[in-house]
Each structure stands twice: as structure tokens, then as C-alpha cells.
Design goal:
Strand content: under 5%
CATH topology of the largest domain: Four Helix Bundle (Hemerythrin (Met), subunit A)
Bound molecules: fe (ii) ion
Number of strands: 2
Structural class: mainly alpha
Strand order of the largest sheet: 1-2
Order of helices and strands: HHEHHEHHHHHHH
CATH class of the largest domain: Mainly Alpha
């Protein structure tokens, strides 16, 4: 049973929980309390600049990360699952940070309902992957992880449209592009359990990209901005890198992301590297 005065206070409780399993579990508990109406006000609690994290994994700059081998050995599969667990833990924090940070932005109840659902699903993804790591005699924290993932949150902390443009509409959309190949790798190495988890992740992530796109368009309509133009401008300003193929056109289409938004001449314009 949770006793949080407001959704932003509960969001901050998730963000300040260091343990991976604890954070993921609390994310799901808070989401259920919100869905049942046990938490009903937004409040105004201020999220931390950086979320609490466990003592391990060691966070390394991207350039110092060990190279992943391409074979289907257990070690390689563990490394891949570990990297995914790290992404999901960041995704939990990103969802609650968005909820707490932008709660004052005069948004409808559905905005919070949908992002709370996203946060619950990210919690499930982490727990599924962590269980799978345990079945392979590993755990989250056993390997180093990449320290670049919170940068997008810091870079876009000032503006909800910038946050939506980068986190769901670039980073999570990129997840749609790369996950089918990962599912294939697990299938080819006979790891059907891991493949099944990634299919759940892919299905849910289509929803997360769709939620991001929906609210980005909503905010653009509110101010009379052209959504594709503003998105490209925000990507150019706040994303260091290129939007690079292959694109999962089918999954992106399901998320309401038409190819003309990310393909063609405009895509090259988006690259800042
Ligand atoms: Fe996820
Ligand atoms: Fe997600």
C-alpha cells in the first residue's frame, strides 16, 4: 500500500529509489495506485536532476564500453540483455521524470494516465529482463553500462516538446528499428525465452512512441506550430547524431510515424554529426 500525497511525489519516490528491482516494482505499484484513484492529485514535487541508481553497474563513458561480440554465446546474450535492462531502467526514470517535471504544464488527465501506463510497462520490461538474466546466472549490475542515457533528459529538461521530440520520438523510435534484429539473434541462438520478452518490449514500445507522437502533435496544435517542422528543428538542436536507417517502417507506421517525417532530404538536414 502506498501513501503518496500526489502523483509528482510518487514519481519522485520512484526516481530516488536506487535499486533496479525496487525502482521497477515501485513504478508498477504507483501506476496501479494512480489507476485505482488512490493517488488523484498531481501536486508539485520537484524531480531530482539525476535519478538514484544502484552502486553497480559501473557507468562508463560510451567510448570505454567493451565491444559486444556477435556470436550467440551465453556471454553475448547476457551482455545484450544487460544493456537492455539498463535502457529499461533509464526508461522508468525518464517516464517518471517527464510526469513530475511537466506536471505544471496544464495538460489533460489522459496525458498523465498514458505516461503512468508507460512507466508501468518500463517497470515490467526491466523485471522480465532481470528475471531472464537471473535464469542465465547473471544480474543487472554484473557488467558495466553506458553513461550516456540520462543526457537526453538533461538536454530537454526545460521544454516538454523538446523532451517528447527526443525521448519517445527519436530514442524509443530507434528501439523499434533495432529490436527485430535482436529478436532474430536470440531466436538463432535458440534462446526463445529472451526472444519472447523482446517481442513484448517491441509491442509495448510501439505504444510508447505513439503516445509521444500524439502529445507532441497535441502541443503543436495548441500553439499553432507545424508539428513536422518543429520536430525536425528540435531534433537538430537537441540530438547529437543522425537518424539512421534501417527504419522499422511497419512499427513506426503503427505508432503514427509516417515515413515522410524521417525519410528523404529532411533526414539529412536532421543530422548534426
Ligand atoms: Fe521499455
Ligand atoms: Fe518505452
Amino acid at each position: 500500500m502506498t501513501h503518496y500525497a500526489s502523483l509528482t511525489e510518487a514519481a519522485c519516490a520512484v526516481l530516488t529509489t536506487p535499486g533496479g528491482r525496487d525502482k521497477a516494482t515501485l513504478s508498477r505499484v504507483v501506476a496501479a495506485a494512480w489507476a485505482r484513484g488512490e493517488i488523484s492529485v498531481l501536486g508539485a514535487a520537484i524531480p531530482p536532476d539525476r535519478p538514484a541508481r544502484p552502486g553497480t553497474p559501473e557507468l562508463l563513458p560510451p567510448a570505454q564500453m567493451p565491444r559486444r561480440r556477435s556470436a550467440g554465446s551465453t556471454g553475448t546474450r547476457i551482455a545484450l540483455l544487460h544493456a537492455l535492462a539498463h535502457i529499461e531502467l533509464n526508461a522508468i526514470d525518464l517516464a517518471w521524470d517527464l510526469i513530475a517535471r511537466f506536471a505544471a504544464d496544464d495538460l489533460p488527465r489522459e496525458f498523465f494516465d498514458q505516461w503512468v501506463t508507460v512507466a508501468a510497462e518500463e517497470g515490467l520490461h526491466f523485471l522480465l529482463i532481470e528475471d531472464r538474466l537471473a535464469a542465465l546466472s547473471a544480474h543487472y549490475g554484473a557488467l558495466p553500462a553506458h553513461d550516456g542515457l540520462w543526457e537526453a533528459a538533461t538536454e530537454t529538461a526545460h521544454d516538454l516538446r523538446a523532451r517528447l521530440a527526443i525521448v519517445p520520438m527519436v530514442l524509443e523510435a530507434r528501439g523499434l528499428d533495432v529490436t527485430p534484429a535482436m529478436i532474430g539473434r536470440f531466436e538463432r541462438s535458440g534462446d526463445e525465452e529472451s526472444a519472447a520478452i523482446l517481442r513484448i518490449v517491441l509491442r509495448d514500445e510501439i505504444g510508447h512512441v505513439a503516445v509521444g507522437k500524439f502529445w507532441f502533435d497535441y502541443l503543436c496544435a495548441r500553439t499553432g506550430d507545424d508539428s513536422p517542422t518543429l520536430w525536425r528543428n528540435l531534433v537538430r538542436t537537441h540530438f547529437r547524431g543522425a537518424l539512421k536507417p534501417p527504419f522499422n517502417r511497419e512499427a513506426r507506421e503503427k505508432a503514427g510515424f509516417p515515413p515522410d517525417l524521417y525519410l528523404g532530404a529532411d533526414t539529412t538536414g536532421v543530422s548534426v554529426s
